[in-house]
Amino acid sequence: RTVYLNGQYLPEEEAKVSIFDRGFVMGDAVYEVTCVLEGKLLEFEGHMARLQRSLKELQMHCDISRDEWLEIHRKLVELNGLENGGVYLQISRGNAGDRDFHFPKAGTPPTVVLYTQSKADLRNDPHAETGITVVSVPDLRWHRRDIKTVQLLWASIAKMTAEQQGKDDAWFVEDGFVTEGSSNNCYIVKNGEVITRPLSNDILHGITRGSLLKMMAERQLKLVERPFTIAEAQQADEAFYTSASSFVMPIVEVDGVKLGSGKPGPVAKRLREIYIEEAL
Ligand code: PDD
């Protein structure tokens, strides 16, 4: 792969970052994942807007403009002949010169890394046909989940917990309510109504979520933004999650309880179709 590091396009073996980089030592970095379909970037503006917000919330500075970001994304897709998959972008607070809790001095350049990840065409993901299974775990993450940082250890542990139980993914639960999935926003469907947690610092403001809700509103589909419990999810007709790397993914089991027919439901299937049709 050809990757991008601080202004240069390099073979991945040659892209090297300091052992004193804040991202490495402190988990002090933000990221975005933009989906690529047929060589095209999906939801580019949304991801860049959220990136700017993450940077601002962490008082991190990076003076790459929207147009420059677009050029870097496009060039990486082209150089790597990427058809389907995604572009991973990460900005850390840079090389601090040594380990120190305090931020490095003003003017320290951030470390900017982008690379492509090739995947099968997401539109034909076999998981969408069968639906996926989830288990719940307590949400032990910090309370700024609205900022897309690389501090993903608890999400990793949650995914490993699910895998060890033979399940596909995990849902985080806090104060009795589901916050979100380990790397996605989640929804239940009851009597034709879609229910999802409202935006706050408790969850990541998913770009896919934002677009899907807009598409639903345009079609006058019923949506209620409120938190829901695991018990409520288990009694729901359907459930699904959204993310840039899966679009709309039907969920057929929560903590061992099959939902409805145990197969992907009509609402999730329809929303997946709508999203795929409109997103490209
Ligand atoms: N994850 N919630 C969390 C905790 C996430 O990590 C993600 C995205 C989402 C969905 O956001 P979006 O629709 O903007 O992708 C929600 C990405 C895909 C990842 O970490 O790979």
UniProtKB/TrEMBL annotation:
- Identify the pathway: Amino-acid biosynthesis; L-leucine biosynthesis; L-leucine from 3-methyl-2-oxobutanoate: step 4/4; Amino-acid biosynthesis; L-valine biosynthesis; L-valine from pyruvate: step 4/4; Amino-acid biosynthesis; L-isoleucine biosynthesis; L-isoleucine from 2-oxobutanoate: step 4/4
Sorted alphabetically, which keywords does the UniProt record give?
Amino-acid biosynthesis, Aminotransferase, Branched-chain amino acid biosynthesis, Pyridoxal phosphate, Transferase
Report the GO terms under cellular component.
cytosol
Q: What is its EC number?
A: 2.6.1.42
Q: Which GO terms describe its biological process?
A: amino acid biosynthetic process; branched-chain amino acid biosynthetic process
Superkingdom of the source species: Bacteria
Q: Name one GO molecular function term.
A: L-leucine-2-oxoglutarate transaminase activity
The cofactor named in the record is: pyridoxal 5'-phosphate
Q: Give the Pfam families listed for this entry.
A: Aminotran_4
Q: What class of enzyme is it?
A: transferase
Give the catalytic activity: L-valine + 2-oxoglutarate = 3-methyl-2-oxobutanoate + L-glutamate; L-isoleucine + 2-oxoglutarate = (S)-3-methyl-2-oxopentanoate + L-glutamate; L-leucine + 2-oxoglutarate = 4-methyl-2-oxopentanoate + L-glutamate
Role of this protein = Acts on leucine, isoleucine and valine.
The UniProt family comment states: Belongs to the class-IV pyridoxal-phosphate-dependent aminotransferase family.
Q: What is this protein called?
A: Probable branched-chain-amino-acid aminotransferase
The organism is Paenirhodobacter enshiensis
Q: What is the lineage of its organism?
A: Bacteria, Pseudomonadati, Pseudomonadota, Alphaproteobacteria, Rhodobacterales
